[in-house]
Amino acid sequence: MKFNLKSFFLGVLISVVVLFSALGGALADRLFVFKPLDYFFPSNKIRNSVEQKLVNEESLVTTAVEKVSPSVVTVAIQTPQRSVLEFNPFGGGFSRRVEGGNQQDIGSGFIISSDGLIVTNKHVVATAGTYKVITADDKEYSVIQINKDPSNDIAILKIEAVGLTPVTLGESTSLKVGQFVIAIGTALGEFRHTVTTGVISGLGRGITTGSSFQGFVERLDDVIQTDAAINPGNSGGPLLDSRGEVIGVNVAVAQGAQNIGFAIPISVVKEGLAQFRQTGKFASKPYLGVSYQMIGKKTALLNSVPQGAYVVEIIAGSPAESVGILVDDIITKLEDKELTEEGESLADIIATKKVGDSLKVEVWRDGETINFTAILSEFSE
Length: 381
Hints:
By secondary structure, the chain is an alpha+beta fold. The chain is built from seven helices and 22 strands.
């Protein structure tokens, strides 16, 4: 094979040029912060873009939290001290312990007016006791009035205070799945002003919460689903958008699931607030007064009973009691509409009525069908 001197020197020359180009680029990068290699190898640009995105997101969170934190409160309760008798089945017999008497953080809320109006969940203030509100600067205020929305899991607390910082109520009608959100609250009833972040995981979800006498459980429709960590104690706290505006009220966490929380859209809260500010109370809600569990098709076939709402308990003095509906009855129809797991629920049908309206109720009892007409009364807690 013939040695080609010309080709050899050309190869050496190209190698020298490449070497000096690389060294020159690296030197320029280090000494003069000039990055000629980025034009050909843009990995640094990508890394810088990711880092800038993370910095921007962090800045949004810190800005929103600094803006809203003074308006987020902890709701605490002090229950009467009582003695509880317990029996140990494994030996030791009966023992007595004392519970209650100490103040305990149980939920969250947020200030909506400088003169002491605070939004929280209705279930947060469902237990009998003395309630207090603790603000971000650790000042404690006694709750002097509790107003509950019978249609939603919302309550407004009143404290004697002035000069408070209210939140900014945003919009929830145009939310999108994937939108960035921030939750603030007293996680686990212990860690005040806990901040978590996430995205909107779903819209238009339906969950159940509240008093068993409002259809066994209260049905909340069109709630926001989020993966921002919402723990017991976060209930009543605000769900924020990236601007620090409240778009929802944290209400529940899915039992047995991870990273699934829910919030009531702020549009629902605004409707209730408009009524409250105009009349001093929330709109009344009709109720029948039964606690029930649904019997599905499979259960009905196995037990030779019809599908419907199995009556578990009845409120004394309720419309259901006054017309003669009994525990163990199965309500099969309301207003000639069959009650099934797939169709409208008892609570859905009652929600279309007003206080004072009549309601046709068909009941199955011991193999017989009985018809009642109940006059719906106002639900009061």
